[in-house]
Design brief:
By secondary structure, the protein is α/β, with parallel strands linked by helices. 44% of the residues lie in helices and 19% in strands. The longest helix has 25 residues.
Length: 496
């Protein structure tokens, strides 16, 4: 008996559903992930056939195992012996009498344990909050480079400042200076490999992070290289929140003035930045001859005449099960006795950070959080507003920065400890992206950062719980929806 047309259609539909279910189960369970994410993606792939797999391609795929292994298995630099000696010294130290010093001691040991992060003393640290001043100083340092220039950024755009940087690097490469550039292909969207052809012709090198040359075939929005690292001759280093693009100099009307925070470091802290760059560079090279294998020239003796800042450089990435920078943030929040002041463009904390902030607030700690008044991406901004509202209800002071766009990622605690780096206070920076932060133990630097915070308050509007509650119903719905959707699929965004 011949099947009718409708019966054939039903068989085809049931066949598609069966194949989709099998594919969904295979896709979700072939990669290790937490229970919530597993269930979320299983529902997406099951309930949204075909389209769900397109969403998964952008948002759900993890890094290939071979790339994860390249990051994890890089050659340890010849610093392990010194680190072990430093750990032993800390364990043998007499128990400090002051509570603050005990906090320092345990925090230092935490970073040594989870990230092999050296404590480096006597660093000279300068703080930059303006893009014009930062890049002027950075370009001056680059122009004076004698041996090596190592640059790693999430974003290097093909615009005015991007071309200025490229031209300068081409000149230094032609002079015989070793120039290596590492960039994220997604963050530097629109920049083709040919952008660096002249640099390569002059002897320099430029590669995308983890060899991701084409976003057409590797279009993950997650697992991006969000680090910002510059080392010059192994003696001068830069780390912080600025990327390379005209918008970071306030040249785009959409954002207006760009308020960020970046550090210039001279001292042992540069060793940690150099170490991180070398590991990332080697992980991004397919051929052994392109890797850095002789390390000593990149770690010259450093003499600091006027430096008194102790710091640790801590890096974070999805190759490690430990969310290292988040653990650092938690340590600082939990250790606070008087105040915690935070600046972040994206306030989308996970439950552990949210609870830590709640505990601090209800313990009488002065918690202040400053976020932008305008979005770079509306969806993410609505989620940020949601959590700002929640924390305002708990008792935190929430500031909306009005003078342009606030992109700084800073945390200061009790006037004694501070963190500045690339990591936002959000799930992506904690778990999905490659990040780097400087954790500093110096009340002078912390005082400077707190004074910057106070100065920024003059350009802020305080958002009270009553003001949040008075927002239109439609706006509050968008905030709630954005929060739920963001936590559901960890949607990425371009500007970080």
């Amino acid at each position: 008996m011949l099947l009718t047309t409708w019966q054939i259609i039903k068989l085809i539909i049931w066949g598609i559903i069966l194949i989709n279910e099998i594919a969904a189960l295979y896709t979700v369970f072939r990669e290790k992930r937490d229970i919530a994410a597993t269930w979320a993606w299983l529902l997406v792939l099951t309930l949204i056939p075909v389209l769900g797999f397109i969403l998964y391609a952008f948002l759900g795929r993890k890094l290939p195992q071979d790339k994860m292994e390249r990051i994890q298995s890089q050659t340890e630099l010849e610093l392990s012996a010194a680190l072990e000696e430093q750990k032993k010294q800390f364990l043998d130290m007499p128990r400090p009498k002051k509570q603050t010093m005990r906090m320092y001691r345990r925090t230092i040991m935490l970073f040594q344990s989870i990230d092999n992060a050296f404590l480096t003393r006597h660093n000279q640290v300068d703080i930059y909050t303006d893009g014009q001043e930062l890049f002027q100083k950075m370009f001056d340092d680059l122009a004076n480079a004698k041996k090596s220039i190592h640059i790693e950024f999430y974003t290097i755009y093909n615009d005015q400042i991007g071309n200025q940087l490229r031209t300068l690097l081409e000149q230094k490469a032609a002079e015989g200076v070793e120039v290596r550039v590492l960039y994220d292909s997604w963050g530097s969207m629109g920049v083709k490999r040919s952008f660096y052809d002249a640099l390569r012709q002059n002897g320099g090198l430029a590669e995308p992070f983890l060899m991701t040359h084409s976003n057409l075939f590797d279009f993950r929005l997650n697992y991006r290289d969000h680090r910002k690292i510059v080392t010059i001759d192994g003696k001068i280093g830069y780390v912080g929140g600025f990327n390379v693009g005209d918008q970071y100099l306030g040249r785009l009307p959409k954002f207006g003035y760009w308020r960020d925070t970046h550090l210039r470091v001279i001292g042992g802290g540069v060793y940690s930045l150099q170490q991180r760059f070398i590991r990332d560079w080697n992980a991004s090279q397919r051929h052994v001859q392109d890797k850095i294998i002789h390390y000593r020239p990149y770690f010259p003796p450093i003499t600091v005449k006027q430096g008194n800042t102790a710091l640790q450089i801590v890096s974070n990435g999805p190759e490690s099960p430990l969310e290292k920078i988040k653990l650092g943030y938690l340590r600082l929040i939990n250790a606070a006795q008087d105040h915690i002041w935070i600046q972040t463009p994206y306030l989308i904390p996970d439950d552990s950070v949210l609870d830590a902030l709640r505990i601090a607030i209800h313990s009488g700690v002065d918690v202040r959080i400053m976020i932008p008044c305008k979005p770079d991406h509306p969806f993410v901004y609505r989620a940020t507003q949601y959590y700002a509202h929640q924390l305002a209800n708990e008792g935190a002071t929430i500031y909306f920065y009005q003078n342009g766009f606030l992109h700084a990622k800073t945390m200061v605690v009790d006037g004694k400890m501070a963190s500045v780096g690339s990591a936002n206070l959000d799930f992506r920076s904690f778990k999905l992206n490659f990040e780097i932060n400087a954790f500093m133990y110096d009340h002078h630097i912390t005082d400077q950062l707190e004074q910057i915070f106070v100065n920024d308050i003059r350009n802020c509007k305080v958002m009270t719980p009553e003001m949040f509650a008075a927002q239109p119903v439609w706006l509050r719905f968008k905030q709630t929806f954005s929060r739920l959707f963001h936590r559901f699929c960890n949607v990425g965004w371009a500007v970080q």
